[in-house]
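User: My collaborator and I are trying to settle a disagreement about how two of our proteins should look. Neither of us wants to argue from intuition anymore, so we agreed to look at predicted structures for both before our next call. Could you fold the first one, then the second, and keep them clearly separated?

Assistant: That sounds like a sensible way to settle it. I'll keep them separate. The first protein:
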Amino acid sequence: MDSPADNRPRLHSLQGEPVPQAVQHGWTQLNQMPTGAQQGFVDLLTESLRGEEEAALAQSLAHFAERYGIEQEIAFAALKAVQFLLARAAALDLDPKRFGEDLQALAPDDTGGLRVIGSRYLPLKEQIRQGLLIQSLADHGKVLVGLDWRVDTLTASDRAVGLDSRVVFLTLRLQDADGTERTTVQLTPASVKMLQQFCRRFSDGG
């Protein structure tokens, strides 16, 4: 059961609302970890923000807990708390100063969490905001989030012989509100040139 709201810090990232007790608890767990574990926690956090598969993340969590002699429940509570704080701060595009004030308010006497998370806030925020951009677009259609390719040579078909043309197989990973799908297109040399012209037009130097 939550403690009275007036006893819990009110954070910039929550627009002045009191922090949930579970988040306060998770942040405390992070601050109580040994310094080495706090440093290793950053790798676990970064992996979780990349959207790794649940099974892979669970394995990484178990490995982290075993390596540093920490109960998995404690590591998980800390991970969920930091994810929550970063997500709220990133959604508001909170500046590092105000985010640092939030972390300080959560544990005025413990600076370990502030040091390892606060110092990495900007790249973590950018990573989260990129994901929010993709999610915002995916709510209304498909977004290109990745690609794979290979090159083959087409020598002949039932339509013609002696074609001897290089063909690029380009597989697009597209994300929308329902998930991710893969679509493969075939590019002839002329298609590749057309795509290059398009990319040059929208490149930073174009």
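The second protein, kept apart from the first:
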Amino acid sequence: MVHRIYYKKRYMSAKEVLGVMQNDYPNLSFHTIYRNLSLFEELGILESTEFEGEKLYRFACSDEHHHHHIICTICRKTISYEGCPMNTIFNVPDGFEITGHKFEVYGYCKYCA
């Protein structure tokens, strides 16, 4: 399952993962897919986002460098964006320590535009 998500290089819904795997595993259920996706996310193997009310998963990026994602809203191809716009748009109040954030930009990739 993780292998197939890794090679897609984009976010995928549980339904899409089931569709990709069902030919090889015809008895596989949606609930099994969803449970495994949740477990892989908990273990840090996958990461998720929510798009149009649906939870989507992709292979987790390494924690070695700080980056964000640009996501095509049509094909869901995901591109890493180096740098952090939070540094220029957000002034941290005194006495507050930011421990994490998530910044995603949505649009159309060059193939879908």
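Some points you might bring to the call about the second protein. Residues 2-59 form a domain with the Arc Repressor Mutant, subunit A fold (CATH 1.10.10.10). The two ends are 30 Å apart (CA to CA).
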